[in-house]
Amino acid sequence: MITFDKLLVGGAWAAPATSGVLEVRSPHDQSLVGVVPEASLADVDRAVAAAREAFDHGPWPRLTPGERRRVVARFNELHAARAGELAALITSENGSPIWFTGWLQRSLKDFNDDFLDVAAGFDWESELPGRDGHRTVVRRAPVGVVAAVIPWNAPHQSALVKLVPALLAGCTVILKPSPETAVDGLRLAELLAEAGFPEGVISVLPADREVSEYLVAHPGVDKIAFTGSTAAGRRIAAIAGERFKRVSLELGGKSASIVLPDADVDRAAAALKGLSLGNNGEACVAHTRILAPRSRYDEVVDAIAAMMRGVTVGDPMDPDTWIGPMVKQAQQQRVQSCIEASIAEGARLVLGGPGAPDIPGLEKGFYVRPTLFADVANTMRIAQEEIFGPVLAVIPYDTEDEAVAIANDSAYGLDGGVWTADPEHGLEVARRIRTGTFGVNGASRDMRAPFGGFKASGLGREFGPAGLSACTEYQSIAL
């Protein structure tokens, strides 16, 4: 068991203002993973005051971009050296299978390196050609104090996609980890403290929703960077709008994968194992609506069912496990209710269904059965709501135009894909889909490309130059 008794406030370890604690338990067997202090409103006040002082009067925003890059690069090396340990800790907290957390933690070194490269070539300051004897300097100024609020499903990636560009831009940051992954949040805080950021630049405050709302509404905060549910995102957007705070929101999704009549169905089904069921299906980008042509509908359903029957459910620490438990009992119950509602609405259950898997050793965990539905109408709850679990729906279509219309008939617009023998035609289809990201035949997204959603999937973009730009304000100076 891991125990912390202090919070990182302004880059220094400090006793919490209250005696409240967060107990983090394994969703696999309910064993105690760790105990950490629960940040309070008073802790937020201290952290914001430190961040405000560091931004308004401290050295960090006034260093050169190269000087900031060197400190962030030192943190990146420290973080990468502990990738395996951090992966195991996150798996113990949130139930993500170790294959997933291991892959993701190792990939974060390159992810951060991409940000460092972007910062090295960023147009921090330029000059417009003079007119009438005057000239104009255009500079990118740091946006200020950033409140970064992150979820539990990929905690370090969610944290670093906010921390790293903000720090490179010269901002100061208060990171608010989720209670479900509070222990790894303070492990991250240890590495940030070791990296050598100046006083006041970084705070890490694990807490629940009340503290989150207080933080994002705080008058000392200039920008909110949030990843989480669309419902929470709406509340944050309202707070930001009232106070003219800058905001970036990476929210939910209900992504569609369109299988065209000429597609390699077996290839598509194999790739959907990761695209649809990766990280237990607890992923905003998960392809949970599979659109199949009626001419090959049974073939598509059978191929996906065969793939899902081969998926191993079990202890997330076992390298052979593909799907572990849901993060908490409330999430398990929500997934179960969606499965039951789909049956009641008339969707055809192909495999899985209500109840926990009948597997010895999993009785204490928050497990659900990987579930596949066919003959799904796009109006059903399973086709419209983000379930955040290993539940897939296969929806029939007659024409390509109908498939595009079904894919776009969603409140969300985060991700999606198309499967076809003709990649150029796949590109044509992609251009018709209202999502922020899209893949043709399962192609991997370049992590330097902008990431974010249309519609209820969010506001703004993260990753690469777009993510760094979002942490800056333009300033135009006429001489």
SSE inventory with pairings:
Elements: E1 2-3, E2 7-9, E3 12-14, E4 21-25, E5 32-37, H1 41-57, H2 65-80, H3 83-94, H4 98-120, E6 125-131, E7 134-142, E8 145-149, H5 155-169, E9 172-176, H6 182-195, E10 202-204, H7 209-217, E11 223-227, H8 230-243, E12 246-250, E13 255-259, H9 265-277, E14 287-293, H10 297-309, H11 329-345, E15 348-351, E16 371-374, H12 381-384, E17 391-397, H13 400-408, E18 416-419, H14 423-430, E19 439-440, E20 458-459, H15 464-469, E21 472-478
Parallel strand pairs: 1-5, 8-9, 8-11, 9-10, 11-12, 13-14, 13-18, 14-17, 16-17, 18-19
Antiparallel strand pairs: 2-3, 4-5, 6-7, 7-21, 12-20, 15-16
Helix pairs in contact: 1-7, 2-4, 2-5, 2-6, 3-4, 4-5, 9-10
Report on this model:
This protein has 479 residues and is of the alpha/beta class. The chain is built from 15 helices and 21 strands. It folds into two domains: 2-251 and 456-478, Aldehyde Dehydrogenase, Chain A, domain 1, CATH 3.40.605.10; 255-446, Aldehyde Dehydrogenase, Chain A, domain 2. The strands form five sheets. The protein has a seven-stranded mixed β-sheet with strand order 15-16-17-14-13-18-19, sandwiched between helices. A six-stranded mixed β-sheet has the order 10-9-8-11-12-20, with helices on both faces.
Describe what is shown at a glance.
The chain is α/β, with parallel strands linked by helices. Helices cover 40% and strands 21% of the residues.
The Rg value, from CA coordinates, equals: 23 Å
What summary fits the major beta sheet? 7 strands, mixed
Query: What share of residues are in beta strands?
Result: 15-25%
The low-pLDDT segments are none
**CATH architecture of the largest domain, please?**
3-Layer(aba) Sandwich
Shape: globular
CATH topology of the largest domain: Aldehyde Dehydrogenase, Chain A, domain 1
**Distance from first to last alpha carbon:** 61 Å
Helix content: 25-40%
Strands of the biggest beta sheet: in what spatial order?
Answer: 15-16-17-14-13-18-19
Which CATH top level class of the largest domain fits? Alpha Beta
**How many runs of DSSP E, i.e. beta strands?**
21
Domain count: the total is 2
Count of helical regions: 15
Structural class: alpha/beta
| Average pLDDT number | 97
CATH superfamily caption of the largest domain: Aldehyde Dehydrogenase, Chain A, domain 1
